[in-house]
Amino acid sequence: MHAWWSPDDSVSFLEAELLRAFPGRSLRRLAPGFLGIDEVPEAGMLPMAFAGQALPNAESVAVPSIRVMAEALAQRILDHFPDDAPWRMDVTPCFGQGTAGEHRCAMIDEAVVEILRKRRRSRLRTRLTAPGPVVPNESWLQLLLTSQESAVLSVAPSPVAHAWRSGLVPFPLGRIPVAVDKAAPSRAFAKLVESEFRLGARIQAGETVVDLGACPGSWTYVAVRRGARVTSVDRTELREDLMRNPNVTFHRGDAFSFQPSAPVDWLVCDVIAAPDRSIGLAIDWVRKGWARRFVVTIKFKGVEEYPKLDRLKLELAPLCSEFRLARLCANKNEASVIGSCPLPDAGRQ
Ligand SMILES: C[S@@+](CC[C@H](N)C(=O)[O-])C[C@H]1O[C@@H](n2cnc3c(N)ncnc32)[C@H](O)[C@@H]1O
Fold first, then answer.
1. pTM of the predicted structure, to 2 decimals
2. With CB atoms 3.0 to 4.6 Å apart as the test, which of 59, 174, 210, 262 could cross-link to 349 if both were Cys?
3. Which residue of 181, 271, 297, 336 sits with most ligand 1 atoms within 8 Å of its CB, as the best mutation to test the pocket?
4. Residues known to be catalytic
5. What top-level class would CATH report for the domain 2-174?
């Protein structure tokens, strides 16, 4: 079985998304917020926009004691995770209020480490603790406590974790801390920073960026601070300092009719528009090879529009080497489609 976890306010949307993705299958409710499906085909590796975290190879387990659980986890790591390869372990409470279960989770984590130290110390050297993109030989273990005595366990040895990377977020329950920068023109800058994190790629010095719907300029601000050259498109001018920045070319006009003179490294688009238009724009730019990487916000007026995201999985994901679709932690009222589609280097702007 594979499962997904979603925060309370999104479970019904995740349920609908799963039923659309896997028609005819029945869902298993493992615990509040956890939905599972048996025998998910390849498509299961596509991201679920309304899931906070994917849980490949999931099962419900009893947690009779810290020691028994830690023994079981250590054994899984020793038996299933390749030697000398990176692995992550996340033991997180997912029930009750406030700090419920946190102490128990910390004790389980410590007990696993202690067992590994005694049985195969070298394993501890390859444990990843800093957040980062899922690499090809990485293995994942997630234990999400659903009460003091029960949990959902997900074990994804290499290469399963990498195959599921579009839905695996290297923070407990997929909760990426929202970035803060008071000098940015608006808090929208956090959406671009989170999108880069999800993709595992950052805008680099010397790269070219087109920012559609750029005003007041937070996304342009992020890109120029990284040393990129940005063409910012909007009907309204950006904050004054950005308008004067030599690395910013402002283009007053319609985002949907803008065409780059040559392919760029990044398309970033935060235009306020109907979902169909933003979805169409993302697909169009990728099909035409106009951008190597993209971050496009899909804004919703109502929940009935959520199924429109499915088109991105069908039409855009197959064109991409990396594809993410998520409601960002930095903004829950919209979804972001993020991806990479390598282009030849020649001919870029
Ligand atoms: C949410 S704001 C963008 C915020 C921006 N990402 C930032 O971080 O500062 C949306 C912008 O889209 C612009 N916009 C809406 N429709 C547009 C269109 N058809 N062409 C160009 N800009 C458009 C609006 O003028 C507005 O400035």
1. 0.95
2. 262
3. 271
4. 299
5. alpha beta
